Amino acid sequence: MNNGVEMPMLGYGVYQVDPADCERCVTDALEVGYRSIDTAQAYYNEEGVGKAIAKSGIAREDLFITTKIWISNAGEQKAADSIKRSLEKLDTDYIDLLLIHQPFSDYYGTYRAMEKAYADGLVHTIGVSNFLSDRLADICNFAEVTPAVDQVETHVFQQQKKLRRTLDKYGVAHMAWGQFAEGKNGYFTNPVLAAIGAKYGKSTAQVALRFLIQNGVIVIPKSTHMDRMRENLDVFDFTLDHDDMDAIAALDEGKSLFFDHHDGESIEGILAFGKQAA
């Protein structure tokens, strides 16, 4: 990343993992071989991540932990307090990567709290999530510390080509959420992905992950099943050729399959949740 910190290209995400099941899922992921875990205040499962890490016996320096500050904790003081709570829930002395979860409310105040935590060594890297080109350019030009990462919806049907130009301009790493699009658009039976998978003896999911990784996108696929966790991790023994990459690039529709951050009704839904979450 732009501050010299190294982050695994493939990690394990716990979005929508039941808090009651999170410890077990993260324990399984660590056993399979994952060393990067992505959580958030608004997932309500930071404690499960912390318990799994504590019981794993894996040295803390061999793990990479990401969490995110939710809208309800926006603002300099509230964000600072929430960082302390996240450290307690994760049972760790530092967070490897801390992100602003959504570009709403007083996100500049939030970012100032993150910059201070970074300076104090409580956080090793800071960044943003769901910042599209306009908001990303804004914060890159006016914050003291340039974000190291922007985590955004990214999959074969929404490849974020416009945003990628802004990311590359400011040296911000591209990180995906929703890399399987939650199965929308017939994702797991897509004929292009299936044909390429047959060529390499890989699943459509593995082909999709490999496409993102070869494009320099950090991925954090989620599964609650160990066999699928293993499958998602097994994407480093093949390389898609130029024709494969072009065929998958052509699947891009250039729009969200979930919500539009420039649409008022979509934003109001996020903000309504943000007033009560985390």
Automatic annotation (TrEMBL):
Main enzyme class: oxidoreductase
UniProt family annotation: Belongs to the aldo/keto reductase family.
Name of this chain's protein: Oxidoreductase, Aldo/keto reductase family protein
Binding site for substrate: H101
Marked site positions, Lowers pKa of active site Tyr: K68
Active-site residues per Swiss-Prot or TrEMBL entry: Y43 (proton donor)
EC number(s) recorded for this UniProt protein: 1.1.1.188
GO molecular function per UniProt: prostaglandin F synthase activity
Stored PANTHER family: 2,5-DIKETO-D-GLUCONIC ACID REDUCTASE, NADP-DEPENDENT OXIDOREDUCTASE DOMAIN-CONTAINING PROTEIN
Keywords (A to Z) from UniProt: NADP, Oxidoreductase
Domain NADP-dependent oxidoreductase: 16-252
InterPro entries: AKR (IPR020471), Aldo/ket_reductase_CS (IPR018170), NAD(P)_OxRdtase_dom_sf (IPR036812), NADP_OxRdtase_dom (IPR023210)
Species this chain originates from: Bifidobacterium magnum
